[in-house]
Design brief:
Rossmann fold, disordered N terminus, 9-stranded mixed sheet, 409 residues, Serine Threonine Protein Phosphatase 5, Tetratricopeptide repeat, elongated
Length: 409
């Protein structure tokens, strides 16, 4: 296999006051040569900032594999960051946007030259490569990502339109490859609804234990009729949406064994506009167990024990996500700071100690406990934890704090 090369992708948002060199880094570009596909594939990769700054203990993150990466990477990355760092609705996640080479080839499960409008475009002559693309994912791309990035054992696949068709293909025929599947207005009319016929067989013979599917359908017909009437329509123009309604109905009626799924019809959204809202809603559904709510009224309760509550909550998260998910160090640190702000030092102390239990090799966790004791006027304890922090890692600011305490009488 040829080597891969990693370099920064800079997306510049230029304003009048900016120089041409000013930019905002939103990810990396990675390339991987595929022996299976016989070509070099470009990847756009975003890693949560917890992995890039040395302040907190390096965490491991679930991975989102995003098809049609060049079309969706920017806003999906922004949604992931806001929903994790901003509101703690989902865990921080690595995003891998797979840039297309020949999407008609890679995402189509069968060879078919018939487009939805009846013509046979030249670009369809390479169709039918979904299985080969799956081999690329399974044998080359995923192992490469997992060997070079701090990944947790949880993978999600997101696809829209033709790549949504592939997402359903992967769910049915390579169920073990991902834990969650988000299919956005998929092209299920492909080859006379071939995938739906496959689903009828697979749904009765396979278990989808611990798998989640979120399926959205856009209004591609633009006629004033409800979903039932659309499903009964015979106009060629409604074939795309009819196939998606057919699949959604099949999900409801066949109840695939153990599959946790949700479908949503967005009557007011087009095929082009539906991905944005689908990503947000799909992530909310897939990680509906993750959020640890900030209930300040509860936090003020003198009997409330934040460390016990966090432990119980993330034990539940671990059961759902199927790996040990500890409360993120940065999140607990923010919570502790909040308790200090509202004059709840014992609760802050419980959070600082929880971080040290979970991340015993974190210099920052020990420094923060030293800060707590310094704020409480316990110089001996503050010196103890500053010293411990410095024994783990050389931190100039911590050294200054310790020297200042040592100089005091």
């Amino acid at each position: 296999m040829k080597p891969s090369f990693l370099f920064l992708l800079l997306i510049a948002f230029t304003a009048q006051a900016q120089t041409p060199s000013t930019g905002i880094t939103i990810g990396h570009v990675d390339t991987l040569y595929s022996n299976i596909l016989g070509e070099t594939r470009k990847l756009w990769v975003y890693v949560p900032k917890q992995a890039e700054v040395g302040r907190y203990t390096l965490e491991r993150f679930p991975v989102v594999y995003l098809l049609d990466g060049e079309d969706h990477f920017d806003y999906v990355r922004a949604i992931l960051r806001e929903m994790s760092e901003g509101s703690d609705l989902i865990p921080p996640m690595i995003l891998v946007g797979i840039v297309n080479a020949d999407r008609n080839r890679d995402f189509s499960p069968t060879y078919s030259t018939s487009a939805w409008y009846g013509d046979a475009p030249r670009r369809y002559r390479t169709t039918g490569g979904a299985e080969n693309f799956t081999h690329f994912l399974k044998e080359e791309l995923i192992p490469s990502i997992e060997s070079r990035y701090p990944v947790a054992p949880y993978r999600m696949l997101i696809g829209h339109s033709l790549s949504g068709l592939y997402t359903i293909h992967a769910l049915l025929h390579h169920t073990e490859l991902f834990e969650a599947y988000l299919a956005i207005d998929p092209g299920l009319r492909w080859d006379n609804q071939w995938m739906i016929q496959q689903a009828k067989k697979v749904f009765t013979s396979k278990s989808f234990q611990d798998k989640k599917l979120y399926l959205t359908v856009a209004n591609t017909y633009k006629m004033p009729m409800d979903s039932l009437l659309i499903s009964q329509d015979t106009n060629r123009a409604s074939e795309f949406i009819r196939a998606n309604f057919h699949f959604a109905s099949l999900l409801q009626s066949s109840t695939p064994q153990a599959l946790n799924f949700q479908t949503r019809y967005h009557e007011s959204d087009s095929h082009a506009s539906v991905p944005l809202i689908s990503i947000y809603e799909g992530l909310r559904f897939i990680f509906d167990y993750y959020h640890f709510p900030a209930q300040w009224g509860l936090y003020l309760d003198p009997d409330y024990q934040p460390d016990s509550a966090l432990i119980a909550h993330f034990n539940h998260v671990s059961e759902k996500i199927h790996y040990l998910a500890l409360p993120p160090e940065s999140r607990v640190d923010r919570l502790a700071s909040g308790f200090m702000t509202i004059d709840q030092p014992q609760k802050a102390l419980a959070c600082f100690r929880l971080n040290i239990r979970n991340y015993p090799t974190s210099a920052h966790a020990h420094e923060r406990l030293g800060d707590f004791y310094a704020a409480m006027g316990d110089k001996a304890k503050a010196k103890e934890y500053y010293t411990k922090a410095l024994s783990i890692k050389s931190l100039p600011d911590t050294r200054k704090k310790l020297d200042r305490l040592m100089a005091e009488k």
